[in-house]
Amino acid sequence: MSPFHPEGLAGLGAAWKSQSPVIRGVVMMCASTVAFAVMHFSVRVASSELHPFQIAFFRNLFGLAFLVPLLIGPGFVQMRTRRFGLHALRGVVNIAAMFLFFTALAITPLAKVTALGFTAPIFTSVLSVLIFKEKIRLRRWTAIGLGFVGMLIILRPGLAVVETGSLLVIAAALLWSLALIIVKTLSRTESSVAIVAWMGIFLSVFSVGPALWVWKDPTLWAWGWLLFIGFAGSVAQVSLSQALKETEPTAVMPFDFLKLIWAALLAFWFLGETPDEMTFIGAAVIFGSGLYVAQRERAAARAGK
């Protein structure tokens, strides 16, 4: 029987539900890493013809289109908000981060961009101290310091030329960490549907102007990549959200490192890029420190309940 037959699909659904939440979470997390890596690779390919700002606009537009079915009916009710300004601020921060990151993808080795992107949780932890006045003990400060050491291992300032793209990724990671802080604030009063939907709306609106500024009519080849970027990005976001819904973040976040593996393989096979060992070493240090910080924050949250 074909797995696409209704009875075959029902059997697959039953088999999926029979798995433990941890297994389902890990599978969805791994799927998200593949989708993110494929999307980043696709942005790199499409940037050979289109400006990153224009690519970002279509990524947001198609991403919003995928959200529309989720908003039909009760979804629109959940979008009601009294924090319109904070949603808008999150959109401004997010679109700036996306523009920086997509530009970096166009000019920097794919594996290096992915590796430096792991600094976002480190910046988030620092901003939590500055904004929410959270108390951090020595072990977490040590982990944060190691994260920045990992960043220096990749950049090697003074020993190698620090590329513009690398600096753009770090700036994007810093902005993404600020966006996460805003989301943390919004989540206290807003539904997840409202947070995701307003993000999609504001990102689409805020990316129109920059896209028109650099506009170039896409070829049929470019349209194909733009559609694929929108699809891969939506799959990545949905898979990641489902993974975090299935089980504890600390159970699935270790698998996020697979993004670097997939990115390195895609870059090697199709772009002829060979990342050096320092990129992997630095990424491992950054990722390990970020994972430790996440675990400590989870433990602190549990202790506070």
From TrEMBL:
Q: What is its main location?
A: membrane
Q: Which InterPro entries match?
A: EamA_dom (IPR000620), EmrE-like (IPR037185)
Question: Which family does the record claim for this protein?
Answer: Belongs to the drug/metabolite transporter (DMT) superfamily. 10 TMS drug/metabolite exporter (DME) (TC 2.A.7.3) family.
- What's the name of the protein? DMT family transporter
Annotated TM spans:
21-43, 55-77, 89-107, 113-132, 141-159, 165-183, 195-215, 221-240, 252-272, 278-295
Q: Which UniProt keywords apply?
A: Membrane, Transmembrane, Transmembrane helix
Any coiled-coil ranges, and where?
Answer: none
Q: Where in the cell is it found?
A: Membrane
Keyword set includes Membrane:
yes
EamA domain boundaries: 24-155, 165-289
Record's bilayer topology term: Multi-pass membrane protein
Q: Does the keyword Transmembrane apply?
A: yes
